Queue: 2 jobs
Job 1
Amino acid sequence: MNTFIRKTAKFSNLISAYISTYFTSTPVFVRIIPTDRCNLNCKYCWQKSDSSYEMRLGEYRLYLAKAKKLGVGMITFLGGEPMLWKYLYEAIAETSQKNILTDMTTNGLLLNTESIRKLGESGLDYLNISVDGIKTNPVTKKNSVIRNNLMHDLRKTKNKYRMHFRLNSVIFKNNFEDTAQLIEFSKENNAQLSLGFIVPPIEKNQSGGQDIYFGRQDEKELRQIVSYIISKKRSGYPIIDPDAYFMDIFRFINREKFWDCNYPTRYGWINVTPKGKIRSCTKKMDELDYHFTDLNPDNYRQLRKIFGENVKKCNIRCYSNCAYDSWYYMHNKVRMLKKIISRVRYGLSS
Ligand code: SF4
Ligand code: SF4
């Protein structure tokens, strides 16, 4: 099947997955976590462990068959670091052949000319690469796509296989100079950039040191950061998060409850751990007593109630840009439409 026909079939499947949520309780988006291990050690990380259990290919095939039966529209590969998983390319190819959109978030350490080409060949639709600055620093070393000069390979694979890519970056205390350089880099390389404020620890036993989190005392610094980012956005820089995400940071540090995490909604995510269990949120490393292969519309409704109870406790302490953006666009349909149009234009022009 040629790339255009395959993409059309995948988008039709996504639309039908979304429409079917109006009639029955099934997930649109599934996130597969084939391994919890990671080859980096970022100071702000709450989503990895040294557990040696990795999903087997046979197990993934069962989950894929289940996802197809449930009418899932998109499967995301997450970790830990998903590129450590030895079956990654086969899993992406088999998912793609079932006309399900595929997406992956990687720290980029294992990206190189060959692995980028193999991802494109396998049929990956979206590649999200974490990059926290032009240089490494004591908090994070996520900059390999820049260090190894991989933008040319990414563009080439995008043109050949329509594998879109974007850069994801975390803004933490005292790293804004790095972020500003990255913003320039994204413009020079016409690469979409998603910027998220650091998410403080959600569980009590997690701690990365208080020196990296923003608080009320940082309001002046945050005002400079927000005004810088918004001015860059307005002058055409490819930053994809809505202005509201940056402006609402002041409500977050003042502990207001002003946004609702999508996990309990019909367009929330289902996370599947290496053992096939459901994880309530990628920031929590938990495993609920539900196995993905047992999921059906009845227990999915129960699960969403559990997510709803969990979110009551964590939402006020969380400012994940991925969860916020998803909530924001679901409640601002006109802006969502504009965003889709600008993405399509961007995809055609770059
Ligand atoms: S790359 Fe991601 S999973 Fe790995 S340590 Fe950093 S934040 Fe955690
Ligand atoms: S608010 Fe949502 S994204 Fe944030 S920790 Fe809670 S469940 Fe996870």
Job 2
Amino acid sequence: MSWFLDPVGSYGLFSGQSACFLPISKWLLSTGVTDRRETPLQKTIRYYIREMVFFVKSPETQTAETYNFKFKPMNPNDTFTLAHLSDPHMAYPGGSRFSDFLNKRFFGYLKWRLRRQSEHHGDVLVRMIQDVRNCQPDHVVVTGDLTHLGLPAEFAKAKELLEALGSASQVTIIPGNHDAYVDGALDCRLLEWVDYMVSDGIKVCDGTDTVVSSLFPSLRVRDGVALIGVSTAQPCSTFLAVGCIGNDQLQRLQKILVETGQKDLFRIVLIHHPPKSGVVSWRKRLTDAEALQKTMQDYGAELILHGHSHHPSRTYLETSHGRIPVIGVPSASAAGEDPRRRARYHLYRLSRRPDGWDIQVSVRSYVHKEKCFDTEDKYRLAD
Ligand SMILES: [Fe+2]
Ligand SMILES: [Fe+2]
């Protein structure tokens, strides 16, 4: 079945000076120059391209302070609808090189064949995409694990998924641990997704390690809603699926939370690993969850959305700013022999109230018999 539903041109963010680097970077990607087995000459070419990109925009300047946004808070009569889906785990091991599997992927592939292949179905994902499109949300977020083994073919298929969901200005993604499955997997293919990740007003044309780390936390503002992306994706050893934010990213996150809070925006933090303990097992945890919790307690947010758990979860972070809802969704492609793990996505209807925010949640879940998505539950989050 083809994943290619409705492609939308998605390099609209590239313009001006950076535009000249894009064709070069795309060419390098297509010829495999950005792969890790590159020659010294190819490495040198990539190094200088990266340096040129940094000359155009230094990562140190990528704070909310310098973004040329119209920070307009939401009007009382306006509503904003956000769709949240996660963990599609698109697996395409066929056609890969034998050498691609001489690492953690070998065990990941075995596990896929033995168990997960029967859990994740491409046609469930296609139906979810169609249902999301029918609901016409103002924006869509995908919280990681778009790929399963971080293979180049999976990154390409995931790009088709994103294009089917909408344009880069309508869809925001963050990576998950499966996207960074082995060292270099995410960095080498970043260029395919970067326009769905990058902050408003930032131009990035190269998919190198340093650029990846400078992308997050990302900030996109849509109709008074601040979408703040945090990356926890990192390669880890064979039987672990842990994530880490890191001090540098946390410090930049604090600044963004302060500035978007002062502008009275509705702040949504997007993160792959759940920030609260107990949602996933120890081997899948966020290693610096306590530091993130402290940040949220000090600087606040209105909502935290995550993936990774593959089951629905709703918890709260208690802070001096009030309770922050922390909500996760199951995998977007789970056929769901176990009903709890069946594919679901959430629609958030956000609006202003005189005393705060109104957050209505609609849970759309996969119905086996009809092979379609339907509303399973509706509830309201109190702030
Ligand atoms: Fe996942
Ligand atoms: Fe994950």
